[in-house]
Design a protein that fits this description.
Blueprint (H helix, E strand, L loop, with lengths): L1 H6 L8 H5 L7 H10 L5 H5 L12 H15 L13 H23 L2 H4 L8 H5 L2 H29 L8 H13 L20 H28 L12 H25 L11 H23 L6 H18 L6 H18 L1
Bound molecules: iron/sulfur cluster (SF4) (2 copies).
Length: 349
C-alpha cells in the first residue's frame, strides 16, 4: 500500500487506488475494506513495474486476495465457526455431500418404494414424497440462520472499517447501482485481465449471468411461497406460471454464469492468483451449478417416476447451500457490497 501510495501509476484503474490515497497509514479495518473493494481484475499486476522479477516482487491482486480471505474468517458469526474458512473448498464439498446423503437417506427411510418411485402429478405432488412441514421447517430454519449470520458479518465488517450511519441517500443509490450493474467489473469498458495482459469481458458477463440467475431463482421461490400461502395454490405449478418462468430463466442464468466463471478460472494466469484459495471458489461454483442443474432436471422430469429421487436430490443440494452460505465464498458478495457502500460514502463526502 505504501509503495502504491508513492507510485500512484494505477490510480485510474479501479476504486481501490483512489480510496488508498485517502490514507497514509492502514489499520486492519482499512486493509479489509480495500481488499474487498478490489474485484481482482489483475490489471495492476500486469502494469506494475515493481512486480516480479523486480526485487520488491509486488503482487497486489494476490496480496489483496489473501487479505479478503482473512476478512471472511475475521467477521464470521458466530466466531467459533470462523475456522470453517480454512480449507474451505474441502469443507463446502464435504458438507454438500453430507447434506445430499442425509436428505436421500431420510426420504428413502420415510417413504415406501411405491411412494418414492411412484408417479405423482397435480397440486401437492411434491408433498406426497417429502412432507410439507419437514420441507418448510428445515428449509426455513437453515435459511433464517444463514441470513442472521450474514447480517452479523456485514455489521462486524461495517463497524471495523469505520462504522457510522449512511447519512446521504446519494451514497446508497451509488452503492446499489455499483452492486447491481457490477460496474467495476467493466474495467472502464475494457474488462479484466483473465489470462494475460489482454482485456476480456467474459468474467463480467459470466458473473452477471450467475448473479441475476440467482436473483431470479430467489424471486421464483418468493413467488411460489406467495402462491402457496396467500393464494392457496399448491406446487408444482404449470410451465407458464410466474414461479416456473422465473426459476427456469434463473436456472439457465446460473448454469451459464457458473460454467463461464469456472472456465475463466481454469484458463487464468496463476501468477497474480492466490492459488491455495481457489478450492473455495470452485466449491461454491459447483454448489451453485448443482442447485440450478438439479432444479431444472426436476422441472423436466417432475411427471415421471424419477420425481421422488430428484426432489430429494435437489432439496439436499439446497439444504447444503443454506448451511454453507455464511461459511463459503458466498460471503464475498456481502463484504464487497459493504465495501462499495463505504466507498460511496467516502466518495460523496
Ligand atoms: S501496483 Fe505497481 S504500478 Fe500500480 S500503483 Fe502500485 S506500485 Fe505503482
Ligand atoms: S486487481 Fe484490479 S481491482 Fe484489484 S487493485 Fe488491482 S486494478 Fe484494482
Amino acid at each position: 500500500m505504501v509503495i502504491c501510495n508513492a507510485c500512484r501509476y494505477c490510480e485510474g484503474y479501479c476504486a481501490v487506488f483512489p480510496a488508498m490515497e485517502l490514507r497514509r497509514s492502514f489499520s486492519n479495518g482499512d486493509l479489509g475494506y480495500l481488499a474487498n473493494l478490489c474485484h481482482d481484475c489483475r490489471g495492476c499486476y500486469y502494469a506494475c513495474q515493481y512486480a516480479p522479477p523486480h526485487e520488491f516482487a509486488l503482487n497486489l491482486p494476490q496480496a489483496l486476495a489473501r487479505v479478503r480471505s482473512e476478512t471472511y474468517a475475521e467477521y464470521a458469526w458466530p466466531r467459533p465457526l470462523a475456522g470453517l474458512f480454512q480449507r474451505n473448498g474441502m469443507f463446502v464439498s464435504l458438507l454438500t455431500s453430507l447434506g445430499i446423503a442425509v436428505v436421500l437417506i431420510f426420504t428413502a427411510r420415510l417413504q415406501p418404494s411405491a411412494i418414492l418411485y411412484g408417479p405423482h402429478r397435480g397440486p401437492g405432488a411434491f408433498y406426497a414424497v417429502i412432507p410439507e412441514a419437514a420441507m418448510i421447517g428445515v428449509g426455513g430454519a437453515t435459511f433464517a440462520f444463514a441470513m442472521l449470520a450474514l447480517v452479523m458479518g456485514f455489521l462486524n465488517f461495517w463497524r471495523d472499517t469505520g462504522g457510522g450511519p449512511v447519512a446521504q441517500a446519494r451514497s446508497l443509490l451509488k452503492a446499489a447501482s455499483d452492486v447491481l450493474t457490477l460496474h467495476n467489473l467493466g474495467g472502464g469498458g475494457y474488462g479484466c485481465n483473465n489470462r494475460d495482459e489482454a482485456f476480456s469481458q467474459t468474467r463480467r458477463y459470466s458473473h452477471q449471468a450467475m448473479f441475476y440467475g440467482f436473483l431470479l431463482c430467489f424471486a421464483s421461490t418468493c413467488t411460489a411461497a406467495f402462491y402457496e400461502h396467500v393464494l392457496g395454490l399448491a406446487a408444482p405449478y404449470p410451465f407458464l406460471s410466474i414461479p416456473v418462468l422465473l426459476g427456469t430463466a434463473g436456472g439457465f442464468g446460473m448454469l451459464i454464469g457458473t460454467a463461464g466463471l469456472a472456465w475463466v478460472k481454469v484458463g487464468s494466469d496463476p501468477a497474480p492468483a492466490a492459488n491455495d484459495l481457489l478450492g473455495a471458489d470452485y466449491a461454491l461454483l459447483a454448489l451453485l451449478f448443482l442447485s440450478a442443474a438439479t432444479g431444472l432436471l426436476l422441472l423436466v422430469l417432475r411427471d415421471t417416476r424419477a420425481m421422488g429421487i430428484l426432489l430429494a436430490l435437489h432439496l439436499g443440494v439446497i439444504l447444503s447451500f443454506f448451511l454453507t452460505l455464511p461459511y463459503s465464498k458466498f460471503v464475498h458478495g456481502i463484504y464487497r457490497s459493504a465495501a462499495l457502500l463505504r466507498h460511496a460514502v467516502e466518495h460523496t463526502r
